[in-house]
Amino acid sequence: MTEPTTMQVDTALVRELAELLDATKLTEIEVSDGDRKIRVARKAAAVQGFAPASAAAAPAAASAPAAAAAAPATEDWKAHPGLVRSPIVGTAYLTPDPTSPPFVAVGKTVKEGDTLLIVEAMKVMNPIVAPRAGTVVRICIVNEQPVEYDEPLVIIE
């Protein structure tokens, strides 16, 4: 009878992977070496789906009540037909670079194919484009927020 083998865990590698999770703001990472697999995961912190008030410009604040009225009810927005979801896991950026204005804002009209935001995954910037023309009624994330696959990003009506 063969003796059961115990897996030798490389604790230094596990620590390195945990530090990589913190540095990249991801929720899990998995590596494999032959038959051995190591997966390190953590629970994502709950994140509010609203942009901070300081991000809104003064002229946009005047149109905010109208845009808020046009937004679907809280319980209905996740099923909205104009909801754009993240196709990948990564970090969402609402601006092309730190000194530029956001790609879109609530109340802005977009055309099909316009860039709504960027999701960075593994050092690759992936533009998320409008699947249809319409008006942006809700931005469900904040700049530099980690996003999961299928997470709500923007609603277009």
Automatic annotation (TrEMBL):
<dbReference type="InterPro" id="IPR050709">
    <property type="entry name" value="Biotin_Carboxyl_Carrier/Decarb"/>
</dbReference>
<dbReference type="Pfam" id="PF00364">
    <property type="entry name" value="Biotin_lipoyl"/>
</dbReference>
<keyword id="KW-0092">Biotin</keyword>
<keyword id="KW-0444">Lipid biosynthesis</keyword>
<keyword id="KW-0443">Lipid metabolism</keyword>
<dbReference type="GO" id="GO:0003989">
    <property type="term" value="F:acetyl-CoA carboxylase activity"/>
</dbReference>
<keyword id="KW-0276">Fatty acid metabolism</keyword>
<dbReference type="InterPro" id="IPR011053">
    <property type="entry name" value="Single_hybrid_motif"/>
</dbReference>
<dbReference type="GO" id="GO:0009317">
    <property type="term" value="C:acetyl-CoA carboxylase complex"/>
</dbReference>
<dbReference type="InterPro" id="IPR001249">
    <property type="entry name" value="AcCoA_biotinCC"/>
</dbReference>
<keyword id="KW-0275">Fatty acid biosynthesis</keyword>
<dbReference type="GO" id="GO:0006633">
    <property type="term" value="P:fatty acid biosynthetic process"/>
</dbReference>
<dbReference type="InterPro" id="IPR000089">
    <property type="entry name" value="Biotin_lipoyl"/>
</dbReference>
<dbReference type="InterPro" id="IPR001882">
    <property type="entry name" value="Biotin_BS"/>
</dbReference>
<feature type="domain" description="Lipoyl-binding">
    <location>
        <begin position="81"/>
        <end position="157"/>
    </location>
</feature>
<comment type="function">
    <text>This protein is a component of the acetyl coenzyme A carboxylase complex; first, biotin carboxylase catalyzes the carboxylation of the carrier protein and then the transcarboxylase transfers the carboxyl group to form malonyl-CoA.</text>
</comment>
<protein>
    <recommendedName>
        <fullName>Biotin carboxyl carrier protein of acetyl-CoA carboxylase</fullName>
    </recommendedName>
</protein>
<comment type="pathway">
    <text>Lipid metabolism; fatty acid biosynthesis.</text>
</comment>
